[in-house]
Amino acid sequence: AQSVSQHNHHVILSEAASLELGCNYSYGGTVNLFWYVQYPGQHLQLLLKYFSGDPLVKGIKGFEAEFIKSKFSFNLRKPSVQWSDTAEYFCAVMAYGNNRLAFGKGNQVVVIP
Amino acid sequence: NAGVTQTPKFQVLKTGQSMTLQCAQDMNHEYMSWYRQDPGMGLRLIHYSVGAGITDQGEVPNGYNVSRSTTEDFPLRLLSAAPSQTSVYFCASSYSKEYEQFFGPGTRLTVL
Question: How far is A17 from chain B (nearest CA, A)?
Answer without folding.
Answer: 25
